[in-house]
Structures
1.
Amino acid sequence: MTANFGFWDYFIFIAYALLILGVGLWVSRDKKGHQKNAEDYFLASKSLPWWAIGASLIAANISAEQFIGMSGSGFASGLAIASYEWMAALTLLIVGKYFLPIFIEKGLYTIPEFVEKRYSTNLKTILAVFWIALYVFINLTTVLYLGALALETIMGVPMIYGVLGLALFAAAYSLYGGLSAVAWTDVIQVVFLILGGLVTTYLALDTVSGGNGFVAGLSRVYEEVPERFAMILDESNPEYKNLPGIAVLVGGMWVANLYYWGFNQYIIQRTLAAKSLKEAQKGILLAAFLKLLIPLIVVIPGITAYVMINDPEIMANLGDAGLKNLPSLEQADKAYPWLLQFLPTGLKGVAFAALAAAIVSSLASMLNSTSTIFTMDIYKQYINKNASDKSTVGMGRISAGVALIIAALLAPQLGNLDQAFQFIQEYTGIVSPGILAVFMLGLFWKKTTNKAAIIGALASIPIAMYFKVAPNGWSNSSVFVDVPFMHQMGYTVLLTMVVIIIASLIQHKGKDDEKGIDIKKGLFKTSPLFNIGAFAVMIILVLLYSVFWN
């Protein structure tokens, strides 16, 4: 086996890059006599069909943090990390049925815009700043780092050049074309992403089985490490702190997923760009089915890599190349890039194109959403209230460029990360519970007031930091224990909601807020297709958890 790229690997990868750039620039072009306006740039002219929405949701979501970070977590802890994907399928159904009808009815461009309509401009600005900071300093930075890590591991490209190359690739079409370029290239990206991921999984399992195929390989992996196929971890497991048993199903995982899929700009923006509510819901349903498949291409390879490095016979067959960039429990994120080294010539190019598709599509999505929030909620609100379409689109491009430069400067500093996926979840979990509390009460409790929501949003950060810092700082005290971050998120969202409810009742003495949302009869009615599809997703989830419970 060879770990080097061959001619056909380079050919396939370059062809993929040219295809994405070509399609991105082609759909970005201005029609004759038409100046691109804010709806064109930020919402793709509200023209996306269901299949483009579903594909774009997955392409925006699946990035280096899944391919590399989640495979690393699979290497370290096993299939339990797949709960993020399988619970996301259920969360998508909730978002499609109960959140989207309200968002689309209000004709939103951004999630902070909903905050302004339901609460106030002040709270919108607070949350807009939260999101911009989160996207730039956590999401963009981590995706760039993990992508560059893959380039460094597989092709020997120095980290700094990998960061710059990925940043320029994502910027080449997304800054010019906006959401339209991002969404339509995502349709192509998701094909590469899934096919390339399946190829990697198949060949890794085929290697483990000694050439006897996928099923034999999966059977052997299960026989070798059955403990790594437990979905619900007990307290004796070293990874319990990251995936705390049954709380994964009934606790903080819901905070992470409801926030991410329901109130995260770079995800929900695709559904806001739909032709209609029904089209958006069909796209959500497609994404939910695809989510059931994702662990097969991002978690199973990590578990397979763990079996391979602990099998002397397999390692001997890999030769000296097998010792190059070897993953370990301390450097679990090397598992997926390590596997890619051993794919046959040609297929290595396909698999690497899949990884690049995941990275670049997510970078483009995050850039577009960062620029949307900054332009629509900061620039047009405070800097240039009468901005023309031309200056609005121009500012969108400039702000995306600045965000990318900041992230590119910070990315190389993340070199000491172990499981990057868990890092993202943990630090997003400081901000997300407060935002989720504000939105859930704003959507479904008419008595929630603006003042109470601001108090809750600001209070959520010290509450979250208390649970993150205090238990560790008082480890010798019987009062405090080391709290898993999923418990931290669950406790934070509940306490924040209590703060908001008490403040609202004190302010209005139990009366409805004047901006409270009237839930009209029939608002949450969904089509027979959505209902049947949702039922099928839930049946599959029950079967999966029944088989892999422990």
2.
Amino acid sequence: MVGGPDAFARMWAAVLTETGYVAMDRRGLVEQMREYTEVLLAGLRSDRFAPEPVERVGAGLVGMRLAGPETLRASLLLIGADLLRVTGAGELRAELLPAVQGAFAAGFATAMQEKIFRDQETIRRAALEARRGAEVALLASENRFRAMFNQAAVGIAIGDADGTLLEVNTALADMLGYQVDELRGMNVDDLRFPDEPAAMRRPFDEVSSGARDHYRMERLLRRADGKPLWTDVTVSLVRTETGEPQYLVGMIEDITDRHLLEERLRHQANHDPLTGLGNRARFTERLTTAFGCDDDTRVGVCYLDLDGFKVINDSLGHDIGDELLVAVAARLDRLVTAPGRIVARMGGDEFVVLVERSSGRAELVDLADRILAALAEPFPIGGHRLAVSASIGLVERSVVDATPAETMRDADVTLYWAKADGKNRWAAYDPDRNAREVARFTLSARMPAAVESEEFYVDYQPIVRLSDGHLIGVEALVRWAHPEFGRLGPDQFIGLAEETGLIVPLGRWVLREATRQARRWHDAYGDRAPMVSVNLAARQTEEPTLVADVATIIKAANVPPSTIQLELTESAIMSTTGGPLRTLRDLADLGIRIAIDDFGTGYSNLAYLRHLPVHAIKLAGSFMEGLRDSPTADPADAQIVTTLVALSHALGHVVIAEGVEDPEQADRLREFGCDSAQGWLFAKPGRPEEIERWLEK
């Protein structure tokens, strides 16, 4: 049923009329409840809940003299059961409902306690006036006191300075389950709950000795039947004319219902409503406490995420997914929960296990293995047998080595490692690996600005004709002059550039620099200027503007297209079909040379190779080791090189060998008919000035 705030206000007014006397007409009461309803709804709409307005609503009922426990109980039930349903406001945040109930109860209780305290003061003053007045005045005052004493809704007790009860009212006797006569003569110690901490008695001792005049605290008392009774106790001291302690006046309010409500709200705030496990707040509290232990204490954290849970949710529905989460939580709880351990749900399909006072990494590894084994057993859910695995990140360390926040950050990192390594496994925190990951992230974040600020530069490695040792070309190799990490080779950042897509602007920049250098050499050396070979990533061939960009760059540099060679790896060029293949042909039509890099390391389709617009083949450097005259040389390498050279020449391609490091390798390549070579035997990659010194020899 949906009726809006007015309907809820009418329901609330009816409940109040049933549970207490309302000193206003029906219309006025409904209007007042309508204002209070709007305050509750405002709290449920807020992004950051503020309890004070709702507390004032609870206090307002006490101010209307609606202060009975039945009024509080009925109002809380109505707010919890009917507020969202009756008002029907879609923007309300249901998760804030316990907080609204708690704030309402707190405001009601606070106002009630203040009222009781005022009543107590009235009683105490009446007692003093009765003692000091004349006999007639004393009698009148005592009559007034007795009427108030007996008719008060809260428990009242008067005792001597030693705590022996002299007078109690009916409300207190009913509260404790005794007759009034049974309580007279008892000592307050007889009402204490067993095993009460000694610190709870200290305020009473201070008042009875005269060290203080009053105190107020929550106490757990024992009823006549032995059951616990939560109370709010206020004790005041009445002194003699000389200032010595004479009487103790106590006001006792039964707050058992409020205490149970607070306990329920506290449980809801610290436990996951779906699985019943502790939630993120509960886990964080335990983790922080564990880090507050002695310096020699160690803690362990297992952070796990279910593999493939989204597939189950999407294919079978969220109801099945929720049932699976409940079943997983129950299995983990049975397996893990023990003294010094807690398992919590962090949200979604993520769970975390805390091992307080860990004995070492082996304990965490054993626990992770047992968790993986336990989850491997299928779960019977909704007529299905669902299999699920988990990826687990492990962190085990001394409490002095990190903070709770750093520990959870590292656990999250290791969880990511476990997923990246193949899932259904655990990964332990490794500071060296983490440092490498941080460095990779740092490079990735820096790279866009580095391209713009020209932190990159190009080195050139000579390509030499084997027949006469003449320099015929150079390979352009990009380097990064990082302001923090120093000089970085391409193996340290090209992979990152490809992952982030920055390989496209970076490759465009390298080609522009290489063509400008080719122009300078062409102007200085004419026909003796070397061909410049530039690496082209597979990702670049997918760019629709690649051909136009290359044509623009070559035109701007004003170099003959035939002096530029673009290199693609064998695996990249052999997978080019459709658009990428047309791109290669368009580049070849511009007059640019195309070369296959690292040839022989992939699985080439030779029939396809003969139709590609390729001009040169670059043999992978891994074959060069077999061309050495040494016992470890593999004779199969020589046969492979011979075959590849013959095949390439049959297809009309020039052959360039990479990674040539000694004269023996060069002699064998020359013997096999290889056209050109590059490697440390001839020169390492260097600045353009080194190439110019070569040309000037």
3.
Amino acid sequence: MLTKRGSSKSLRWQHSRYSALGRQWEVSLFTFQFLLFLLWDKLLKNNSSKQRQKRARWLVKNLLQLGPTFIKIGQSLSTRADLIPLEYIQELSQLQDNVPPFSTEEAIAMIERELGQPVYDLFDSFEIEPLASASLGQVHRAKLYSGKEVVVKVQRPGLEKIFNLDFEVVHRLIRILTRFFNSFKKYNLEAIYEEFFELLFQEVDYIHEGKNAERFRDNFRGYSQIKVPKIYWKYSTKKILTLEYLPGIKVDDRAALEANNVNLDRIIQLGICSYLKQLLIDGFFQSDPHPGNMAVGQRGELIFYDFGTMAEVKTFAKDQMIEVFFAVLKKDTDKVVNNLVYMGLIEPLNDMTPVKRIVAFLLENFRDKPVDVRAFEQISDEVYLMFKSQPFRLPPQMTFILKSLTTLDGIARALDPQYNLLAASQPFVKNLALSGGRGSLVTAIVKQAKGVIKDTFSQTNTSEIFLRGLEERIDRGELQFRIRSLESERSLKRINLGIKSLIYACLTGFVLLSASILMTTIYIKFAFICFGFAGLFSLFLFKSLVSLMLQEKVDRLLEK
């Protein structure tokens, strides 16, 4: 049954006729404006909650207008309450499933065009008001003539065009960054960007998403606490996807879950263990597990919805992740560091002592309890040395693994701020240890799990472990005496940045003054050249001031 309603407010990017240059200008202007706002607030020391909320609203409004690429970035940030202020979290959360819908007329036209029949011939009933709308499409509830309750996912118009433009725009920005800023060269941004857009282009192909859903459903066949909707291929195309209707409570809605007597700790464990299975056993995982893509059923089942952004773990990476995971459980610092180096997450250095000390500190202090940032005061000097030498880097193959884990971590912290990742993963380890396991990979995991449990009940004498580790470090030549004043180094770095900023400020002022004088003479052409140099020097000044501000912020954190 169809009922008409008025067209909803449309987004600018859906109907604008962009050129690559116009899109580049829009994205660059947005980036510059936001950075300028933050710098202005910093200079005026206006960092009140009201001001942050104002900036966050402006950010969300402009991300919506910029379109799906930037909405996806905002969605990822909205789960990181430990990284960005609460005001931004609250506003960015609107991007998860509250993106304004497009008009019903467009949705119906898309369905009829793709499926080749009138809507009333396809469905016994079809709800006009969408259940939810997102950056790539919106979902309508319907009923088949067989009586099955379904949801119909309809793609937004113009997605491929805007993706193609953003593909060029972001590529151009990355080339500029890697060419003029040496600090970006080691991160292989080109490969990360290619993988990011490859997933975005896959996400607008609903046939591909449907196949992903079926594969994911097969991987969890027999797991009654994990629900995956069935795909109805007769009513699906590249731009239309019809799925089984599985209602649930949004996974991060703590109040609603508690009102329905749902055990939050169990939901956290279920989410963590399901992702460990995806990563370590299946090698096929949902790379965008934001709260809009997960829900909790009436009986406490975890429901997965969106399968457009699935990713695969290469065999060798999966082997290394298994090694790292169980090395963390056994607090084996050397094995953790060696595998992170092999995976490319840590760059090998002549002196790995600061890195190993930090990893050992993390394993000792945070393996079985929540992270306390204040505890890092004990190793502030090592943190400074580590980030100064920049041993950490992010290879493309790990980008989406870390993104999904940090997003999942953000969801878990929304349910329980005191939760611990490794503690929540214990059921996964125990189940593996008790299972027989078939296949070389599962057998290897089971062997590792049994080793962890065996080590737990047969701990070696602490003094013996310490002496053995000390002996190994002496043999490797890791024990070194270092006499240096880290505080002085940090102060000298700030002084150096301050002097550079002063020089650029003087050059900018001198050239502007020269240009102003030349404007009153016959040498007006030279005045415009001076104005150009003034703009260039002002950019250098801005970069230097931002670097100085960031350095001061890092130093203050280390000194707390």
4.
Amino acid sequence: MSVRASDKMVEVLAKWGVDNIYGLPGDSVDTTIDALYRAQDKIKFTHVLHEEVAALSAAAHAKLTGKLGVCLSIGGPGAIHLLNGLYDAKMDHAPVLAILGQVQSKLLNTDFFQEVDTHVLFDDVAVYNKIIMDPQSLPRIMDEAIRTAIAKKGVAVLTIPDDIPDHMIKDNFTPNVDNFQMENYKVDDAQIKKALEMIKIHSNPIVLAGVGIKDAKKETKEFIEKYKIPIILTMPAKGLVDDDHPYNLGQLGKLGTKPAFEMMQKADLVIMLGTDYPYAPYLNKKVSAIQIDTNADRLGKRRHVDVAIQADAKEAISRLNELGEPVKERPFLDEAVAKIGQWHSWMHDVYTKKHTGVLPSLMFHNLSQSAPSDTIWSIDVGTSTAFGARFLTAKSSQKYTISAWLGTMGCALPGAIAAKHDFPDRPVYAVAGDGATAMVMQDFATAVRYNLPMLYIVLNNKLLAFIEYEQQSAGQQNYGISLPEIDFAKVAQACGGIGERITTDEEFADAIKKYRRPDKPVLLDVAVTDEAPLPGKIMMDEAHGYAKFGLGHVIDKKSLPELPPMKEILRSFL
């Protein structure tokens, strides 16, 4: 029996559970689009308006669900546009498949219109990268690409000349779905007991947990409570243990809290759970360490570890909970709890200070208080990430997605589109700056077109605000950071959604109450005041940078620069 290669390829995708593909059609991928047309009852095609949004949406789908995300584009310029979103997937270890068109096989290597050597172009981003030359091999290679992306938690790229899927082939391939299983690492009880002994003999243990605990939220909470250990969560793991849990010290680093920094430095044992945390200046390397991770190449990668356990976090932590004796008291934890309590009091001072316009810290706090317990957060890069880290109280019942390692602007809207596709019954809140929004605002129309109700909030201060403070902390004068004045509310209305301009705290409070669970896409264009996203702990080089900036400002502008309240500066520095 014969079948069209494109139809068999789509069948393979469907058998692997793919039910949605983000992309744009075009000449070098039209035969694949035609096959998707014939399979509309199995796989949806979400037609976005920019290929970068397609890739970022596919990456967000993978992060939010743990399942394969798929994006599609023509070759040449469309494929190039995908690269940014695919690097986001690569760096956040999200399984994504990119299907790329290409000129017809007979035209390859003739310098034809839009011919780009995608096999070379995508080599660095991909864990699997093939160009299809034989129609009969298309289903098999598609199956292999999917398995590799899932197994290696990375990007698989297939470049398909447009004539290849149009051939008739023998229908003799069965996808390996039923035979596929992820590697299951046996938990070594000897290593578990060694880890427990280390926890027993150290008085100041601290946990640093990453997204590797996403399937072990309950076990991690039990672990820190049983052994009385404070926990720090990496930024992409925010909310996996409730932000308001008394043992949770927040994040570590520039976007983190001062208690997280201080208690990390005071710790005598660091327990790393499912994280490849890279920021060396914040990671205490002078003390003993335990690390649990499924990837052997990450064990001991960032620092020496005394006990390295290659295992699934859920299984390893469950075994730690089963075999150990509970700790009745730990003064180190008491100190940590007191410090984070004081930190929350300081943050209250920050978001209640006198101000004009809409204060970002207060805006995030109020949004957090208003959000339903099953909210999915999609947070963009820059001050959105910084204020989200500080003032959004994320819950383990919620989901929180960012561009963690690549830190690419414009990720919030694609993330919200994916979130609403994947979880249509859950509220989706996205927050982005005006700079990030300007990069992808055309795809608010995609949210409208596919009826994806969401609350999208723009921090509009006509400024690349995070870069403003990056420049200052480096001792540089602010330059090239202003943005044009765009009425994003009118853009939303022009796209067919709801758009409102917000200029006061009271208007914002009313709006988030009104649109708590919107029935269509809503954009709030919020005129925020320029509020400094100060680090939780100002390091000495940053203090020198701010001093250099201030002196340069006085010399250049003949005036003192506007600075955050001195109380906030001193709390972060001392």
